[in-house]
């Protein structure tokens, strides 16, 4: 058994696609129209055959409530590993990304948390 897909709930797939590719640097792998929404996946530019990130449209009311509750509580929906949290933080701030937690060391990791503009807080982390 292995992980091949990870869904991130988003309130606007097109806006999310722009943010996750243009700002975060992921690469679009799949885009298949499916009526009002689409099957939309991204991959890391460093691991093209790795886990696919599904930009999942929020069309289910309980999912909206869950997303809003996580955001209000300051809890990240997902975490992405980076080589250097401080450098990534600086890069993203220069692109006007809003952080709710600046780089902070926690045990053997350094983390930071930002708003993805699509309803989620996203954590980046670096293992020290």
TrEMBL record:
Domain VOC: 2-127
PROSITE patterns: VOC
Superkingdom of the source species: Bacteria
Family annotation (SUPFAM superfamilies): Glyoxalase/Bleomycin resistance protein/Dihydroxybiphenyl dioxygenase (SSF54593)
The protein, known as: VOC family protein
Lineage of the organism: Bacteria, Pseudomonadati, Bacteroidota, Cytophagia, Cytophagales
